[in-house]
Design brief:
Blueprint (H helix, E strand, L loop, with lengths): L1 H29 L6 E5 L8 H12 L5 E5 L1 H10 L4 H10 L2 H4 L11 H7 L4 E5 L10 E3 L2 H10 L7 E2 L8 E7 L4 E5 L1 E2 L1 H8 L4 E3 L2 E3 L2 E5 L1 H4 L3 H6 L4 E7 L12 H12 L4 H6 L3 E5 L11 H17 L1 H11 L22 E9 L3 H10 L7 E2 L1 H13 L6 E7 L4 E7 L5 E10 L3 E12 L5 E9 L3 E9 L8 E15 L2 E21 L3 E18 L12 E13 L10 E12 L4 E5 L5 E6 L1 E14 L3 E13 L10 E2 L11 E2 L8 E2 L3 E12 L4 E13 L11 E12 L2 E10 L6 E6 L4
Parallel strand pairs: 1-2, 1-12, 2-6, 4-9, 12-13, 14-17, 31-32
Antiparallel strand pairs: 3-18, 5-8, 6-7, 6-11, 10-11, 14-15, 16-17, 18-19, 18-38, 19-20, 20-21, 21-22, 22-23, 23-24, 24-25, 25-26, 26-29, 27-28, 29-30, 30-34, 31-33, 34-35, 35-36, 36-37, 37-38
Helix pairs in contact: 2-4, 2-13, 3-8, 7-8
């Protein structure tokens, strides 16, 4: 009953809103004829957020807006305003976006598998390549995939080919530049998201938009302040907004980006003086040091405020303009419904699906994976999941989901570009223990009915690694995987903070995982693994018992469970992370050999059981402070425990140098501990700026050869403090720690993602 009442209330509200709009439009038509008002919004990248502040004041003053024209960011703000977003809706919308994601080509993996999310937080750079075919989406550092997707979502109902003068709520036009003949292109019709994307395609930064024989880039190169376009559309009075600070001096031009910015600024003066001269009310917002790339929350807040302040300085002129327009204080222009941003979350009834430039196998895959035959509605989240799946699982270079209005709802049009030949990944890191390391990844899809791909990974550095994975992507969530890897491990082993020895060995590993359920937050793997250790050299402490130089091989049965609902890979503020693994280690499928000092087999013993787990949760107190308790440990059972698989601790991450390594506050590098190890850690995380974090860790642990002796040994204690800055290149920061095992300060510097 409650649901029925809620539905009736929503219908009544929508009907009332539509009736009010119709009454306003009828009243508007009955008023005496007045002057037509055009608003012109210039380009300027992130500085264009100031346009929203100016629009707020114009609405407050009761100024009608009959025509909107814009270039670059002005085309985006103007285009959205023209389809019904009022200034306050635009304010809410731009603040809600994760611009660090929107202005990149990263995939939105928040709803994808754990393995895909892990890969995104490992590599700095990722791009798809289509070998043998020209990539028509190339030509810029950023292809603008996420921007285009955002425009599609924001313009729901206006994504099909339209006449911008007739079909939008406010007549609209935007400007782009055709680099084929250096001509100005004015969009009065077409697909609105595509027109906006073309108008803001800054050369070299964003890939151009190709329409027919035209290759379109940022319209600012020809007409950054298109007052003349508004006049041609019939504007009697023009209100114009530009975005520029003090002119730059030679001393201000230093780095590459400042040089590129100056070149663009100089070229954007085309027609500026002429257009300024025919502006009735001209306002210029000084961005006060913010640049075209200032998309931080602080910058957006400041720029919107600067726009409001600039408009308020012209308040008397704005009010005086009413008389010229032919309106009085009783006039109230139509401010279109403030509910427009609900297009990001509201569900649209689906009348059918169209698959464009896709194989029948790909269409069948999408229909079955997302149960499209049973899905009768769609929202922005599902649209994004569909396009991400088309790129990730089906390996299409580009993917688009358009909602085309139909009689009783919308028709979903899924359009795909060329299939990728390969997906290239690259990552780089530096730290004070291993120095520089480079990791490259190559995903190679097979053109089969069922998606299959090969993932090749190469790590260059002190620890060399080559790995190949063959993965099947069936329509269900399981992904059977066959992998083979080679590792050249060059490991320094420490004892109580001092280096004891260095061991160099090759590890050959093959693994078959027939059961691999890889879901959004959960991953379950069951499989069989083979390891062969070829020991090459051991320097220092030759009599150390940890590792001998006898080559050996192992067969193990493994079960792994991983769960991760954290909202950030490195600096979470909510959610939980849990990992557990059980392995039964043998060298003959059932038992393990007991050898004497000369390597001769004396007897066969029961295999080694390896049980490990870690569990962390995040609790946010206030807006910026987070507590993260964690329990973890590894227990080894069996008469024989191969030293190469013994327990090790040290560093900040699990499995950094060797797979069984566990972190411990205040201890760097890697140190061996006894077979039974359990630990607890409490981390306090303080978010102190846009991307700055202070981390304090306290840890305690017990270890012994037998579980019953755990409490008989001295407790290991450690503490460390760290400062990190979260960048697009990965976490950058330094750690200072101390433990009662090493009894000396520990300093660690990290630059980049962990791998």
């Amino acid at each position: 009953m409650k649901k029925i009442i809620m539905i009736l209330a929503v219908v009544l509200m929508c009907g009332t809103a539509n009736a009010q709009e119709q009454e306003q439009e009828q009243a508007q038509q009955q008023r005496p004829k007045r002057a037509t008002v055009g608003v012109v919004l210039s380009g300027g990248g992130a500085k264009g957020m100031a346009h929203i502040g100016v629009l707020k004041v114009l609405e407050q003053a009761g100024i009608p807006i009959d025509i909107v024209t814009g270039t670059s960011i002005g085309s985006i703000i103007g285009g959205l305003y023209a389809i019904g977003y009022n200034a306050h809706s635009l304010d809410s919308m731009v603040r809600a976006q994760d611009w660090s994601y929107v202005i990149t080509d990263k995939e939105d993996l928040s709803r994808q598998s754990l393995s895909d999310r892990r890969k995104q937080n490992t590599y700095l750079f990722s791009t798809g390549l289509t070998i043998g075919k020209k990539d028509l989406n190339a030509g810029g550092i950023i292809k603008g995939k996420n921007l285009a997707e955002l425009f599609q979502q924001l313009c729901v109902g206006y994504t099909d080919s339209l006449d911008f003068n007739r079909d939008l709520r406010i007549p609209f036009a935007c400007v782009a530049t055709n680099i084929m003949d250096n001509s100005e292109v004015v969009f009065h019709s077409g697909r609105l998201p595509q027109a906006m994307r073309a108008s803001m395609a800054i050369p070299a930064a964003f890939s151009p938009v190709r329409i027919g024989d035209m290759v379109l880039v940022d319209g600012g190169l020809k007409n950054n302040y298109p007052v003349d376009v508004a006049r041609e559309m019939g504007a009697d009075i023009v209100i114009g907004i530009t975005l520029s600070g003090k002119p730059k001096t030679a001393e201000d031009i230093g780095g590459t980006m400042s040089i590129v910015g100056q070149i663009i600024d100089v070229n954007c003066v085309n027609k500026y003086d002429e257009n300024k001269a025919i502006t009735d009310l001209y306002m210029n917002v000084n961005p006060h040091g913010y640049s075209t790339a200032s998309f931080t929350a602080t910058a957006i807040d400041s720029l919107i405020r600067y726009g409001e302040e600039e408009a308020m300085r012209h308040w008397d002129e704005i009010i005086a303009l009413k008389e010229r327009i032919g309106i009085d204080s009783s006039y109230h222009p139509i401010i279109y419904h403030p509910l427009r941003p609900q297009v990001m979350t509201e569900k649209q009834y689906v009348t059918g699906y169209t698959f464009d430039n896709m194989t029948p196998q790909a269409e069948r895959f999408l229909r079955q994976k997302f149960h499209l035959q049973k899905t009768d509605s769609i929202d922005a989240k599902l649209a994004q999941e569909l396009t991400t799946c088309m790129r990730m699982d089906l390996f299409y270079q580009t993917a688009e989901c358009r909602l085309v209005p139909d009689k009783n709802g919308v028709r979903v049009v899924l359009s795909a570009g060329n299939r990728k030949s390969v997906q290239l990944h690259a990552g780089f890191r530096y730290d004070t223990e291993e120095y520089a390391a480079l990791q490259l990844g190559l995903d190679i899809p097979f053109k089969t009915a069922l998606p299959v791909n090969t993932d090749i990974t190469l790590r260059l550095g002190k620890r060399l690694m080559v790995r190949g994975d063959l993965t099947v992507h069936p329509r269900s969530f399981t992904r059977p995987t066959l992998s083979y890897s080679f590792r050249r491990n060059d490991v320094d082993v420490y004892m109580d903070g001092d280096r004891e020895y260095n061991i160099l060995y090759n590890q050959f590993q093959g693994e078959f995982i027939p059961i691999n359920f890889d879901l959004r937050h959960f991953n379950l793997q069951l499989g069989l693994r083979w390891d062969f250790m070829h020991y090459r050299n051991k320097l220092g402490a030759e009599d150390s018992p940890q590792v001998t130089l006898e080559n050996e091989h192992f067969l193990s049965y493994r079960a792994r469970i991983a769960y991760n609902s954290e909202d950030s890979w490195y600096f979470p503020t909510r959610g939980a992370r849990f990992n557990a693994e059980y392995a039964y280690l043998t060298n003959n499928f059932a038992k393990i050999d007991d050898r004497d000092a000369d390597g001769n087999i004396m007897s066969k013993k029961t295999g080694t059981s390896d049980v490990s787990a870690n569990w962390r949760m995040s609790f946010t107190i206030g807006k910026r402070f987070t507590l993260q308790p964690m329990l973890y440990g590894r227990l080894l059972f069996g008469t024989i425990v191969p030293p190469v698989f013994g327990n090790t601790i040290g560093g900040d991450w699990f499995g950094h140098y060797v797979e069984q390594q566990m972190p411990f506050a205040g201890i760097g590098n890697m140190e061996y501990v006894d077979k039974q190890f359990v630990a607890a850690q409490l981390q306090a995380q303080q978010h102190i700026g846009g991307n700055s974090y202070i981390l304090i860790r306290l840890a305690g642990a017990q270890h012994a050869d037998k579980a019953k002796e755990l409490l008989d040994r001295r407790t290991l204690l450690g503490a460390q403090a760290a400062y990190y800055y979260n960048t697009m290149f990965g976490p950058v920061g330094a750690t200072l720690g101390y433990s009662n095992r090493t009894k000396k300060p520990y300093f660690y510097l990290n630059l980049g993602f962990e791998f």
